[in-house]
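INFO  loader      accepted 1 record
INFO  loader      residues=500
INFO  predictor   begin
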Amino acid sequence: MKKIGFLLVFAFFLLMFPSMSMAAQGGTHIYLDGAELEQPADAQAGSVKGSVMVPLRVIIENLGYEVDWDKKSGLVTIRQGERNLQLTVGSTKAVVDGKAIELSAAPVVQGSSTMVPLRFVGEQTGLKVSWNNDSKSAYLYSPDGGESVGIVPGRASSSPEEEAAGEGTLTPVIEDGEQTDDSTYIPDSPPAGEGKTAELNGIGFSENRLTIAVSAAVQPKVFTMSGPDRVVVDIPNVTFSESFKQQNSLNVSLQGELPVTDYPDVAKIRYSMFDNATSTIRIVVDLNKEVHYQVNNEGDGLLVVDLAAPFTVPVVPPVTNGKPLVVIDPGHGGKQPGATSITNKNEKDFTLALALKVEALLKQETGLNVLMTRTTDVTLGLEERAKLANDNQATVFVSIHGNSFDGKTSPTGSETYYSRDESLPFAEVMHKHLVEGTGLPDRNVRKKSLHVTRETKMPAVLLEVGYLKHKTDEALMYSEDFQQRVAESIVAGIKEYLGQ
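INFO  predictor   done
INFO  writer      dumping tokens
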């Protein structure tokens, strides 16, 4: 799972101070991963004395970070995994993992709310950030368009549900050889020459199908995002052709929209030069509801994303003996390899190997039925996994993953995630057995809005067995003995929760 970024958290705490009141009255905007965040009327982003300040609490509650704020001292402490950051209201000094750094502007407070500089967010997280002074809009998005990161704090790669729908690669505006303040950023112009092997000639939408015409064969990456629902198509090594620019609306930031009418499932379609480094064009289909899609790519440069493709899930024969049904979900698979380990192994291989051992053990339990979301290396969407469990009226749902981290030193240990409060008792039981089975450090039960644990209708958990970027964790995770031991612990947890 790709990193959402440690300090994304403090892109937002709340409220502007008095000198920002005019911006608040005029209305400002914050876009995170292409979706606009709702801001309180008196807590809006804006430029103050050359620095863009943004409120923290706007998104913090949905990110799963640990935050302490000492109102008396003005000290804000943010923790994520082994990382630790401290800010002090009124001070331009901050401490990140024990190292002092200088802020472009001091955090400020109004009432119980804290504002921090947008520039600092970008510097510390690797997020691409920009401020459009004309529209009074702040943009934050993941820089590489990789897998979501951010699905679980500290992960480098997880499921594609959290993928960003970015606004362009950003660099500071330079005037007279000097960099201006962080309130003015503009997108780079796409570099010409090297690596640009094809041109995007056209985009169309009809009969619930998105058609993309490229001048050569390409390998797109297509995935879904939620909150709001959308389908994202990333096409690397492609530029907009001159004919496309002439026939379609593209602003100076190389962003545009395709008008869509008479299709109730689709709100709009957006396109942009998402990443100049890889010349990746991103096309986003904003949806009014979650849909299933199918990608047709015959290698001739014509891509079709069919939003009307039917989807069927395997259905277990009717259970007449009253046995609980356990759904085991090996994370990733097929074209979604997940995170890469320290020795370049794929997460999808670990999750499937462990899940198959769990399945084998569960099949020995006469009091249980078991259903796998996948038993081979196939690509399976998040909505398909949840739908399978819901359509079969599963009793419990267990998704298996390997964690990852992009920092210099990877954490070690096991974590368990849940989304809905009714899943907490299940998560606590499963985590107890998981830690006993792995023998790795206990990194706690955590609440996070993940698609497979949020959209399922039964108690559901996502198990992060260990860290793929940690040398000790990884060596264990790909060993047969360790996998068997962990499989036994997972089954023990399921049985204890179900009272068997």
